[in-house]
Design brief:
The structure holds two protein chains of two kinds. Chain A is mainly β. Chain A has one helix spanning 2-6; strands spanning 15-16, 29-31, 34-38, 42-48, 52-62, 65-72, 81-85, 91-97, 108-112, 115-121. In chain A, the strands form two sheets. Chain A has a five-stranded mixed sheet with strand order 1-2-8-6-5, with no helix packed on it. In chain B, the strands form two sheets. In chain B, strands 1-2-8-7 form a four-stranded antiparallel sheet, with no helix packed on it. Chain B has a three-stranded antiparallel sheet with strand order 3-4-6, with no helix packed on it. The chains are: A mainly beta, B mainly beta.
Chain lengths: 136, 152
């Protein structure tokens, strides 16, 4: 992609989760930005969750609904005073409905540098099959 | 922790006894705006990445959320009282033959200069990138550190 090589990154506001009913604990909740793409064999989800450690990340798949929850530990030391605050920190939460049939046994998740990479392989039978029409 | 100073302007805050009042007012604004569903006004410099600047007795701390960036792709420099952070972000989502359902993450170059409010010691700068959060800690110059004065 030569396009991304030259593009300047723009600052974007973190999106807060708008529904308030789902919260049980105080604190801000943000929607992580995601890329979802599929290839012939699998569905790949990339989510930006800066500050989330592996142990604080929960990925739940049930009834074709995928739920991502990421908790963050506070970064600031107790002695620190704010001078300039441009972004806020809080939990990450997002849900997706999956349309493809996913092979739950082979789901892989990796978290590196604050980016979650979730690989969801499709069940063999949903892999598109080329159908050749024979003239009869 | 929940309600930190959300409405600080990107200029440096002058501490005053009214700070606390100002903060309460901001919190109320936030609650009310939340009910109306209007976006909360949060001033930024408009340059990627958004940073949080804090200080303690000895150091300034600059934090930025930079998910998916390797330490090798970052260039951090301190010149005088300015800290410059630049680099490039790859999203890792450019796959041959892929069909996209969502494309919200962005890649590209970025460069930002942050002016620090006081003199710093450019020899004592420490930068760490953990879980996509960059923390640059810069030691204050001896002259700007608060000094305890004992009464003799």
């Amino acid at each position: 992609m030569t396009d991304t090589d030259t593009k300047e990154l723009k600052v974007k506001d973190k999106q807060e989760v708008s529904t308030s009913a789902e919260q049980t604990r105080p604190g801000l909740v943000f929607t992580p930005e995601v890329d979802i793409f599929e290839t012939e064999k699998e569905l790949v989800l990339l989510a930006d969750m800066p500050g989330v450690q592996t142990k604080d990340l929960t990925i739940d798949l049930g009834e074709n609904v995928l739920t991502l929850t990421g908790d963050i530990a506070p970064f600031e030391g107790a002695e620190e005073e704010d001078i300039l605050i441009e972004y806020e920190t809080g939990k990450f939460y997002r849900q997706f409905t999956l349309s493809e049939v996913i092979d739950q046994e082979r789901i892989e998740a990796a978290l590196s540098d604050g980016v979650l990479r979730l690989t969801l392989p499709k069940v063999e039978k949903t892999t598109p099959r080329k159908i050749t029409v024979t003239a009869g | 922790m929940i309600y930190r100073r959300l409405f600080d302007l990107p200029t440096y805050r002058v501490r005053s006894p009214f700070d606390e009042l100002e903060r309460m007012r901001s919190q109320m604004d936030r609650v009310l705006e939340g009910f109306q569903g209007a976006p909360v006004f949060r001033p930024t410099a408009g340059v990627f990445p958004a940073v949080n600047l804090t200080e303690d007795k000895d150091r300034y701390y600059v934090r930025a959320e930079l998910p998916g960036i390797k330490s090798g792709d970052l260039d951090i420099q301190v010149t005088g009282n300015n800290l410059s952070i630049s680099g490039e972000r790859q999203t890792g989502a450019d796959v041959e033959g892929a069909r996209y359902h969502r494309r919200e993450r962005e890649g590209g170059r970025f460069s930002r200069i942050i002016g620090l409010p006081g003199d710093v010691d450019p020899e004592k700068v420490d930068a760490r990138l953990v879980n996509g959060i960059l923390t640059v800690s810069i030691a204050k110059a001896e002259a700007t550190k608060p000094r305890q004065i004992t009464i003799s």
